[in-house]
Every structure is written in C-alpha cells, then in structure tokens.
User: Fold this.
Amino acid sequence: MRLIPVLVDIWLCLLVFKAPLTAEARYTIKPRQDAAAPSSLSISKPQDAAPTAAPSFKPVAKSAEDAASSNGLVPGEPASTTSDVDLGAVTNTPTGSDLGLASDPNKPKAENLPIEPRITPALSIAGAILMLTGLFYTLIGLKTKWLHIFLSTAYLTSLAVTVLIVYVMHSPVSNAIQGAYFVAAFVTGVLFGGGSVLFADVTEGLGCLLGGYSLAMWFLVLKPDGLIKSKAGKAIFIACFTLGAFGFYVSHWTRAYGLIGATSFAGATVIVLGIDCFSRAGLKEFWLYIWGKF
Assistant:
C-alpha cells in the first residue's frame, strides 16, 4: 500500500511531460504555381530628359555592352542609372495564404496554450510550497491525521480562491498583483486548514473530494482541446468524479481505500503543479483553458 503514492507520482510526471497538451500548428509551405511567369524588365532612367517627361521602359538588352551603349555609359563603369527588376521573383514569393497563415473559420480554436507560460516570483514561491507540501501529503499524509486534514482543507480552499480570482481578473496581470493573489489564496488556505483540524470528524472526508477532483482534471487533459467541449459537460464530469470519490468515505468498509487512492492522486497532482511552475510545460495554463476563462 505504501508504494501506491510513489507509483502514482511517477506515472503522472511521465504523463504530463511526455504527452503534448495541445495540438501543434503545422503549416506546409506550398510554392505558388503560375501558368507563366512574366518576363524580366529593365527600368531605365533618361539622363537628359525634361523634368516633365515620363520615364521610358525598354526591354532588357541582349548583352552588357549593348545595355551600356544604349544608356550612354562607358563599358567597365558601374551602371548607376539603370535598375533591373526581376518581377518573376517577386511574383513567385509565397504570400500569407500560401504559408497557411490565413484565418480559417473551420480551424480548431485551441492550437496553442491560452496564455504563455512564464516564471514569475509569485509562481516560483507557489511552486516551491506546492512541491514541498505535496510530498508530505502524498507520503505521510494518512499516517498523521491532523496533517492530512489540514492540507486537504487548505488545498480545497486555496483552489476555490484561485478559481474565483481567475474569473474576476483581467489579463495581463503584473507581478505585484500576482503576488497579492498568491497571498490571498495562501492565507485563506492556512486559516481554513487550521480551523478544520478542530472539526476532524467532519473534515476528514475532504481528502476524498480533493482526490476525485484531481482525477477528473487529469482525464480532461488527456485530449487536445479538452476531453469534453461543453461547459455543462465539464461541470457534470468533475462533479461526478468528486462526489463519486467522496462516496468511498461514507462507508467504513471502503473509507481507508478511498482515502489512500484520493490522497495519492491529489498529492501527485499538487507535486506536478509545483513542478509546472518552473518547467513551463503549461499544465496550469491548459487548466485555465479547460475552465473556459480563455
């Protein structure tokens, strides 16, 4: 039983860093095929023409000497008044539509991550805390009842505050404001976690809720664009897993097994999210996309 959390951690780490979270946009450059390329022209500028006279266009000379003599130049000197324009090269240059960059209404929306993953001071501190507490929660959470209850409640309340902040904030967010958001989520988690220890008999089952939610989120990221498209379907999917995992806590026959499995998935998810704060893998950003914020 003690090896289950470790094996779950290893499997989830391999899953998030090996499988791509989004579909990559691959553009194929196709050369433009024209029936016939226009011939090259030479634009010559008359030297002694009147200011109002229009420049004359002459075909390209057959040889360099003929071109020099027709423009009044001495052979061997650089031609400073004649510019040859290769219109065929300009015509065959690929345009935006040839590169596949034109807007296509039928193109999938989730080609990239919703926001670019960045490493900020607030995310660095949050990542370190998540990895440290997630390690304790996964390995020794069930052995120490008060620690398991404290961290389960702290994670759930911090997650609730984070979701609320995500839906009311306006991006881009500066580093100072991001730090304030982190302090709000962290302090709320610590306060509610400390208070939950006083009501251990009631709050012990919150670990199963957290484990079911974590398992549902892992299933949602298994497919580019998300496993379920509609918002109502996502909410029902997450609710079914969360309440289903909590159902294991109701019966004393399955309570211990439910807490073991839920703690394993929840702790592994916390550790992987902490690593993602430093790796730029984009797991947390993809979660934002799944929630429908971006």
